[in-house]
Amino acid sequence: MATKLYVGGLPYSTTQDELQDAFGKAGQVVSASIIMDKMTGRSRGFGFVEMGSDSDAQAAIEMWNGKDFGGRKLTVNEAKPLEPRAPRGDRGFGGGGRSWQ
Is 18 helix (H, G, I), strand (E, B) or coil? Predict the structure, then answer.
């Protein structure tokens, strides 16, 4: 079964191909993605790598966690499942049912 890893501390210039190549040294990479800021389109400095097996994931953690990558220290660990978000509700933009007459 594939294991998804969180990779934090990425240099902002890192590409998905560079991330995939780096983690490929530890084992089979199923997918690699860098999270981008929706407003600016720039990297947010973290991403996710899905490794082909638990042993490949463990090897990647041992190889990269705390190590220098492009001048920055990486944080690599098993990704936590995404928790459901609570509804946002009223954002405070008026619309509170007032009538201006």
Answer: helix
pLDDT tens per residue across span 26-68: 999 999 999 999 999 999 999 999 999 999 999 999 999 999 9
Question: Which CA distances in Å does 60 have to 4, 100, 101?
Answer: 11, 61, 65
Domains along the chain with CATH numbers: 3-78 (3.30.70.330)
Q: Which of these, 5, 56, 11, lies nearest to 32 by C-alpha position?
A: 5
Give the residue from 74, 83, 84 showing the smallest Cα distance to 5. 74
Angle in degrees, CA 74, 60, 77, rounded to 5: 55
Tallying the residues shown for the chain, one arrives at 101
Under 8 Å between Cβ of 71 and 41: no
